[in-house]
Amino acid sequence: MALLPFRTKSRSAARRGGDHLASFLTGHSVEVMPRTAEKVEDFRALFAPETRIYIAHIDGTPIEDMVATARRLANDGFTVMPHFPARIIKDEATLADWIARYQGEAGVHQGLILAGGVSEPHGDFHSSMQLLETGLFDKAGFDRLHVAGHPEGNRDIDADGSERSVMEAARWKQAFTERTDAKMAMATQFAFEAQPIIDWTDRLRENGVTLPVHVGLAGPAKLQTLIKFAIACGVGPSLRVLQKRAMDVTKLVLPYTPDEVALELAQHKAANPGSLIEAAHIFPLGGIKQSAEWVQGVMADAPAQASL
Description:
8 strands, alpha/beta, FAD-linked_oxidoreductase-like
């Protein structure tokens, strides 16, 4: 019975959006941590083969746990993309060691390169750009490097609420991919409104940035859980969607699902083939199984709608 709201809302979205939502979620990626992955008996029962699974590296997580999770997922047939957070990497030797371990033990050749969630660097690096400039990923033959995107800005970078530094970094990353063979994309923080994301991708293009965008979606979760994560992760103005929902007693007891924001993004992508928006990236804040079942529900409903 707990899954009924997920299925009901998915059918509603499918009716309104045809197969656009299912198309948008095809090829989605998902993010896990070693401690949450341990609770999943079999990822193959939840996600399609070769699904890209990011492994979030939280400060304090031993590299051995990260590599073990990568090895398990790779052995199960998934595309593995561990985080490389600059501010928790002590020095270039440590970075080289991590890359060698991931490759040697799990066959990893992709990575999400980001600054990281700590305020003070633990060593020589403080930005994703510094990690990229080492050239170690290229030397190791990494064929895909993703970087972070911030549709609603990032107050850790632009304390004044602007996006000046964030956009400058985006232009640098665009230049990097143009002068190297790196295949890159921007994976964004999750948000709860589509329009700010769409507007941000338009501003990226105006600034000469054409990197594909993989939009972060918060997976199904209790409203209280989402609000807690949203505040901790610095989600911007779209947080008002949750705040408004919290004031509606009829919705307070139901789990949040990302149908509305995902559908609007899907329809925009369908109507604008040249959009930078390329794929969806799911943060399973309410649980990995719940997010997987939400996607499965959307996919299962889409073919029925096509025959109506």
